[in-house]
Amino acid sequence: ATTLGASAAQTGRYFGVATAAFKFTDTPYMTILNREFNSVVPENDMKWDATEPQQGRFTFTNGDRLVSHAQSRGMTVRGHALLWHAQQPSWAQGLSGSALRSAAINHVTQVATHFRGKIHSWDVVNEAFADGGGGARRDSNLQRTGNDWIEAAFRAARAADPGAKLCYNDYNTDGINAKSTGIYNMVRDFKSRGVPIDCVGLQSHLGTTLDSTYQQNIQRFADLGVDVQITELDVQQGANQANIFASVTRACLAVARCTGITVWGVRDSDSWRTGQNPLLFDANGNKKAAYTAVLNTLNAG
Ligand code: G3I
């Protein structure tokens, strides 16, 4: 096939992109979005600060615009992210203990209920593990409400939208390391105790090399009985960029439960990684070598 989405669909997968409602008036941008991708995720529009700027007052305008555009084009939607230590509204940053816990769970319930039936997969909890060697949870206001905050969030999300796949999402998990092993152990524990979890998101914000255990790491999560999704892929520009994009794609195709890939923006100029040109299209919307490498890999799979 000749586009990323159609090529991924040949093996039952999706190929998605992070987007934002404010970009929908950019015609060259929308031409690429609509042509190439069959899944979208809001880069910011469904985060806590965006959806509940004041406690108990929800604003879904941008999220709804994104969902309705996706529906009109037959694209699926990833939801991102119900709970995260970053991009919390200031009122939540000022809470702690049981007040924060109940506000957080209410947030999960309200947002997942609003979008019920429209979300393919939710990032229920984002980035709750620490970097470095310990494989431990990250300290945060949410973590300080009790270690069970993650499972409480997953249970609330399941109750609110039983049809959505519920994911745990994190970065620096691009190989077998202490952080990914900490997450692996949590998922194994959740599966053994019946905590509802369906998928693990590997963000895959990558530099100039790819961990040699990237595919093995995907496989070990799949072997726990969860899907794996590559959720925020971007790769620092350099001699290896196209090869790394291709290797990530090949690794996902090699694991049956790796069900889709999302890149974190359309053009280099849309990326949060200013100056790194980490995406598949250049600022003028031209296909880069990395694009061709991904497309060819999808069609070889
Ligand atoms: O919306 C305001 C705007 O009103 C204001 O004028 C402007 C001035 O700085 O800021 C705008 O908000 C920015 C927002 O993006 C929307 O553009 C924030 O400052 C900026 O911090 C925010 O950055 C986002 C970042 O998450 C926040 O942590 C990036 O766009 C987004 O790509 C990035 O995405 C995260 C994932 O959610 C989780 N994984 C890592 C990934 C990269 O950091």
Brief summary:
The chain has helices spanning 4-9, 27-36, 48-51, 61-72, 90-93, 97-114, 149-160, 178-193, 214-223, 241-253, 289-300; strands at 14-19, 39-42, 76-84, 121-126, 165-170, 199-202, 205-206, 227-235, 258-263. It has 301 residues and is an alpha/beta fold. It has an 8-stranded parallel β-barrel, surrounded by 5 helices.
Q: Can you tell me about this structure?
A:
- This is Beta-xylanase.
- The structure is a single chain.
- With 301 residues, the chain is an alpha/beta fold.
- Helix content is 39%, strand content 17%.
- It contains 11 helices and 9 strands.
- An 8-stranded parallel barrel has the order 1-2-3-4-5-6-8-9, surrounded by 5 helices.
- Strand 8, helix 10 and strand 9 (258-263) form a beta-alpha-beta unit.
- Helix 6 packs parallel to helix 7 and helix 10 packs parallel to helix 11.
- The model has no long low-confidence stretch (mean pLDDT 98).
- The chain binds ligand G3I.
- Residues 43-44, 86-87, 126, 171, 203, 232, 272 line the site of ligand G3I.
